[in-house]
Amino acid sequence: MNFAQIKDLKDKVLNGYKITRDEAVRLAGTENLESLYYSANQIRSKFCGAYFEMWSVYHQNTGRCENDCTFCPMSSVTRVNYYATCDTTGVEGQIESIRNLSAKGVKNFEIDTTHRTLNDEKLTEMIGILNTIQSKTNVNLCASFGCLSFEQLKRLKNETKIKAYHCNIESSENYYPNTCTTISLSDKYETIRNAKSLGFYTCSGGIIGLGETMEDRIDMAMKLRELKADAISLNILLPFPGTPLEKHARLSNQEILTTFAVFRFINPKAQLRFARGRTLIKIIEKEALRSGMNSSIVGELVVNAKDADIDNDIKLFEDEGFIIRK
Ligand code: SF4
Fold first, then answer.
1. Confidence (pTM)
2. Which atom of ligand 1 is nearest to 170's Cα?
3. Cα–Cα–Cα angle for 70, 125, 73, nearest 5°?
4. Measured in angstroms, how far is the CA atom of residue 180 from the centroid of ligand 1?
5. Residue 122: is its pLDDT beyond 60?
């Protein structure tokens, strides 16, 4: 697409038009990258304003996962013992950490578990943990407990005060079988649809840099639009030692920025969130913030965020003109 075609498409999106897959593919292939990134930023500005959300993530230790996600250090196919490196402070330690981050401006926290889903007994335990954290902090909580059933999500809705539910679809339908064979995408879609129907703010997304094509990423973005995901997490593969992707080559900066911008064209109103792998793109963070992103995990997801990271992150986001939503 040339400059005029990108501008024309952007103007249509600003007026409510939903771009087609074919248009997204042509957009991603443009040589007018500055125009693409600038236009994506304008779309973000029109539909999301200057507000920026910071999130942090806390793992609940529910044991090594039985699934075979190729990118994940907790999976059944990794050679390393991830839990040996995990935070062992337990819920009380996490509450203290959440309070510290909250005092610095982070108001959103995702509590996640391993496994495809949770049984009812484990869900009861997690509901207790969510309520304990909620009663001792003043923050927004999101749960990421895998493919819960409709009845289980209803329990979560009725027995806690959490407003958000997270479930990643990871990649396109075409590429996903290369990434995970033990969880069906249809179960993930159903979980997101059920969470949405129960009134949860839904967060989903995936990983780029697994070996998928730009068209796969576009298909993932189109699916997330169809699922009406309120927030989209975009992870960049961190090749963990011991995982099948440990020697995988990193995506180019241009491909990463183009992906972010095209996601914004396809999902104008979604919160587009930097997730795992931010440390790999330090050099282009500012450009990414000018290409349609408006949310971020703070710190790095492998371990819980450190205070120093937060100060630097807040400065970066505010210097780019964002207002941190508290
Ligand atoms: S289901 Fe989650 S924890 Fe388990 S292997 Fe996949 S990404 Fe890792």
1. 0.94
2. 7
3. 15
4. 9
5. yes
